[in-house]
Amino acid sequence: METSISSLWIQYKEKNDTEARDNLILNYAPMVKYLANRLAISLSSVVETDELISYGIEGLIDAIEKYDHKRNIKFETYAITRIRGSMIDGLRAMDWVPVSLRQKGKELEKTYAVLETRLNRAVTDQELADEMGISLDNLMVLFRELAATTIISLDDFISGDDTNNNKRFIDMLEDEAAADALDMVELAEVKNLLKNSIERLPEKEKRVVYLYYYEGLTLKEIGAVLSLSESRISQLHTKAILRLRGSLSKKKYLLR
Hints:
mainly alpha, Rna Polymerase Sigma Factor, Chain: A, Arc Repressor Mutant, subunit A, 2 domains, 12 helices, 0% strand, elongated, disordered C terminus, sigma factor
């Protein structure tokens, strides 16, 4: 099978065989479905899995067209981020998150950043609620409402403003034959910033981030590993992402 796939890559890349390209798309299409189903688990019911698959296929086609089969990089490794990124771009275009909820999320991120800078440690839920002037119960409700909107945030833009100058990690990772030295320095700084921000997370939140983003487990699977309910894992994930985005927002100038 591996030999057959290799020959398809040669046929398409070196002989521009469109039939080989179509067969490559068919071969890797199950990966798109898997990623769509995994993303859909934690998203609002207004988002259909078929829509995610459609966006993901666009990402797959783009990945196939840009992939260099002569380099020592597995296509799956190269394509996953592009496929998922394409799904996320599609969600952004749909603008499926209510403006009011988006604003609440931004307020929470800012509050996390301000408090954790002031205290130089991870803040508690009670401290966060007190700072925002709401009850602890209302804060928990807000976390539940924001759960679906934060599931994509580690792939979201890391930027200094809301202009079209925003960049994603995947945009910076693309190699157009020669690496730009400034981009490499910026990427290293952002990676280091993200690593340090994750290290500062409370232990449970850190484990959820690791298991979800690095081990590829679903929230339900993480719940089984940590002996917690899926809703509790969702809450921990939401808090972790809000903390991270608040922390990263303090360094917006990095990618301007």
